[in-house]
Hints:
The chain is mainly α. It contains seven helices and two strands.
Amino acid sequence: MSLSVYDITVPVMVHGLNVMDDYLDHAQTLERTKGFEPGSILGERLAPDMLTFGEQFSVSCNKIDAHMAKLMQHDPLAPRNTPMMYPALKGRLLETRGFLQNVRPDEIAGAQSHTYELTPPIVRGWFGGDDYIRHLVLPDFFFHISIAHAILRHLGATIGKRDYLGNLTQQSGGDYS
Length: 177
């Protein structure tokens, strides 16, 4: 079985955005049940030099926009500053999910065969499409989901690996319970 660039990016990112949407719900529930000030979890971070919980969502959406623009050989959109409020972050996730759901497989077909220039802060240089997708696009996306998960766990949310994996039945047709 052969997977296309579309198969390993778009549905995977849509699924991840659904997980992130659930994490915003978990954060609000945690604020209510543990007596946190409403919205305060959005400002939490694991270490002083890391992005906040809320920024994980905004940055992740901006990176999806940038990575997909590269793969589609379009000019990248300017990064957007999303207000650090639950409704705004949920709206940004919804917009990004909608954008991905409108990407057609033919728009990124052959993206693995192109060469992409990467610039700091992460890395500088030219990368083949396979390496760009496997070693930057996907790990970069999952990093932000993982950090959001870790922040919630650190604050006492009762979430685990099952929450990180999300609703597998909608994607695989099987029952993960």
